[in-house]
Queue: 2 jobs
Job 1
Amino acid sequence: PLVKDGVYFMYQALHGPSKKILVEGANAALLDIDFGTYPFVTSSNCTVGGVCTGLGIPPHYIGKVYGVVKSYTTRVGVGTFPTEQNNEIGETLQTRGREFGVTTGRKRRCGWLDLVLVKYAHMINGFSALAVTKLDILDTFEEIRVGVEYHLDGKKIPYFPANQELLNKVTVKYKDLPGWRCSTEAARTFDDLPAEAQAYIRFIEGYLGVPVKWIGVGKSRKSIIKLF
């Protein structure tokens, strides 16, 4: 009873009584077989196009597209990671965030939020809004850095390189923002957040031109701030 013809099942759902259909990407955008950091990718489309290629849903049925991004950047296994922190900062993010691969149990590599990468994901997916998760993991930092530009051979490049050889050579320009040095876990409205945490979220919105709709501040289902 749990096995059905997927295309016909989705067709019925789309043409029957009006309902909301939520489709979740199987992996992160940069693991997409076509647009990810090849060859360090999965075997399918994790970006919004996977709605069509994976489920047989016609493109014109796609409505809102929500991007989910941590307040810092992580990666499991090998592959280029420009903002990776192989130091105490990375260890703190890994430990506080309990960053382990779900399937393999391997420690995730951790680094500062890479907005060049997130902007690339937005170019492909066209986010309607963002959910920024695990903001509370940054609670202990006095200063928080955000990757805002890639430079190659001393010159800024205005895009995320698809070529791994080039990506391995980029250097990152950071924007330094003040930390808030207090717990955000009890916050349930945007105004409950420290001014510095609010500024961090607003900086992300301003850089990407995408509104943040949800903010995660803990492990509980209730630990979510909804902005609109």
Job 2
Amino acid sequence: LCPLLTDGAVEALLTAGSPEQQATFIPPLLEGRWTGTMNLTEPQAGSDLALVRTRAEPQADGSYKIFGTKIFITYGEHDMADNIVHLVLARVAGAPEGVKGISLFIVPKFLVNADGSLGARNDAHCVSIEHKMGIKASPTAVLQFGDHGGAIGQLIGEENRGLEYMFIMMNAARYGVGLQGVGIADRAYQKAVAYAKDRVQSRPVDGSKPGSAPIIHHPDVRRMLMTMRALTEGCRAMASTAAAAFDAAHH
């Protein structure tokens, strides 16, 4: 999930970021020195992003100060990288109502100096880690922006086009999550085959063995295994087709 989100952040910056933003943020993201996050969800705004309340206040130097709370932020806080680049949806004062008034901002954990070195700690802090049923190795954070004067952010692209830019990141993440599912399904199939070859239970119905045999000899078990294999290979083929279509569209 961490490299998946980082890749999505890179895609968003390549599409809508300024040359300066691309030069500052993309190399360390690609090198793995920094990681990226996607900040959409708020306590009152889940699937309905029209309810986003995080606000962005323009500053004289062209930056923005970000104020608000984001929840369920995957890899929102960790110490595996020198910096975390948060891509945050927020609303500028006077923006249209609903999703047409949402903008996208770069809000790094540590501010970045002109020479690319890390500067002061930004006013973006993890206030808690979610307790989940699964995927426990992935820290899911509640992030608070602006409790100490405002988190410094940079606008990506144009104001009020944030959701459009965020969907670039989301689409990359969606494909990655789907491919992750294919990998998990294939590993589950491999484990199931290994277990079926090892677990001994009952005589085969076709009489091929005189006594108890590994359950892979039972027709219904073989049917289940072949169903798993067919579905997994079908999904892999679909993922390959989608990847080829994406490459053809962009290259």
